[in-house]
């Protein structure tokens, strides 16, 4: 479902991603671990072309993201085309990024109507179902400022699902939450994983990785240091850098 090949990304002289190869199968949950500054957010942003790669390719369900190949040449797609591709890639941010002037239901219903042109009535019904799925049926008419951080993040997850994405990307979805609100968001993410959602999750929640991940990826310095099933990477890491990172977060 997701195929990253040879991704390189620099900001000026700073080389942030130095050759990333990663495949995520349909229904697979990949958890990405790594120290601050190792390039995790940049990698997620490259997947949906919020950042342009310097080298390498991103494919979602076989479709090249951001570019069209004609013969040997790559040409960047038009903005409208990129926005269409992005609707297949759900993104959940650390800071929720809800629209403050829209209710929970309107936040969920906005993009399918605006970006995909789906009928408003049908989308509102779907939005109500999705809010129910994340345990917020009774908060549909609340504005974000009236919701806790955990509730806001669950609305953000429902909003991402409303676009019927092929893959959901999470960038430290619980890092901005008070500790007592982390569990409710992780529970929703576990439900999604059990339902077969394809997910790439950047998080420091090792318990979540252990319980839910099919594959754990450890990144450091812009490369994947190691990857494998959680029991291998978390309990029997092969690399010293992985061991010292885990010693700090566990
Ligand atoms: P992580 O998410 O693993 O903490 P990031 O991908 O956010 O790492 O950042 C990796 C490195 O790239 C950091 O040194 C960061 O300062 C740098 N970086 C990220 N985005 C930009 C940007 N837009 N311009 C310049 N440097 C950036
Ligand atoms: Mg980050």
Question: Quick gist of this model?
Answer:
By secondary structure, the protein is of the alpha/beta class. The protein is built from nine helices and twelve strands.
Protein described:
By secondary structure, the protein is α/β, with parallel strands linked by helices. The protein has nine helices and twelve strands. The strands form three sheets. It has a six-stranded mixed sheet, with helices on both faces. Helix 4 packs across helix 5. The longest helix has 16 residues, at 179-194. The model has no long low-confidence stretch (mean pLDDT 96). Magnesium ion (MG) binds next to helix 1.
Q: Roughly what percent helix?
A: 25-40%
Radius of gyration: 18 Å
| Percentage beta strand | 25-35%
Q: In which order are the strands of the major sheet placed? A: 8-9-10-3-11-12
Instruction: Look at the helices and sheets and give the structural class.
Output: alpha/beta
Q: How many beta-strand segments? A: 12
| Bound molecule kinds, no repeats | adenosine-5'-diphosphate, magnesium ion
Net shape? globular
Mean pLDDT metric: 96
Order of helices and strands, N to C? EEEHEEEEHEHHHEHEHEEHH
How many alpha or pi helices? 9
Low-pLDDT runs: none
Query: Ends: how far apart?
Result: 31 Å
The largest pleated sheet is described as:
6 strands, mixed
Give the secondary structure arrangement, pairings included.
Blueprint lengths: L1 E10 L2 E11 L4 E5 L6 H8 L7 E6 L2 E2 L2 E4 L2 E4 L2 H8 L2 E4 L11 H11 L5 H14 L15 H14 L4 E5 L7 H16 L4 E4 L3 H7 L2 E6 L2 E6 L1 H6 L4 H10 L1
Parallel strand pairs: 3-10, 3-11, 8-9, 9-10
Antiparallel strand pairs: 1-2, 1-4, 4-5, 6-7, 11-12
Helix pairs in contact: 3-4, 3-5, 4-5, 5-6
Bound molecules: adenosine-5'-diphosphate and magnesium ion (MG).
């Amino acid at each position: 479902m997701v195929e990253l090949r040879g991704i390189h990304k620099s900001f000026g002289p700073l080389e942030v991603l130095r050759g990333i190869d990663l495949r995520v199968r349909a229904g697979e949950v990949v958890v990405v671990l790594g120290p601050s500054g190792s390039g995790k957010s940049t990698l997620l942003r490259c997947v949906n072309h919020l950042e342009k790669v310097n080298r390498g390719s991103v494919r979602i369900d076989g479709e090249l993201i951001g570019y069209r190949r004609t013969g040997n040449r790559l040409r960047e797609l038009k903005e409208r085309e990129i926005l269409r591709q992005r609707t297949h890639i759900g993104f959940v941010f650390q800071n929720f990024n809800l629209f403050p002037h829209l209710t929970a239901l309107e936040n969920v219903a906005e993009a399918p109507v605006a970006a995909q042109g789906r009928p408003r009535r049908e989308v509102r019904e779907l939005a109500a179902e999705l809010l129910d799925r994340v345990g917020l049926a009774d908060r549909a008419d609340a504005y974000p400022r009236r919701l806790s951080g955990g509730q806001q993040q669950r609305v953000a997850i429902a909003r991402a699902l409303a676009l019927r994405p092929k893959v959901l990307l999470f960038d430290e979805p619980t890092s901005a939450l008070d500790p007592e609100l982390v569990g409710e968001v992780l529970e929703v993410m576990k439900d999604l994983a059990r339902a077969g959602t394809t997910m790439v999750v950047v998080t420091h929640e090792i318990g979540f990785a252990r319980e839910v991940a099919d594959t754990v990826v450890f990144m450091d310095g812009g490369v994947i240091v190691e990857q494998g099933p959680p029991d291998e990477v978390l309990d029997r890491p092969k690399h010293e850098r992985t061991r010292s990172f885990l010693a700090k977060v566990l």
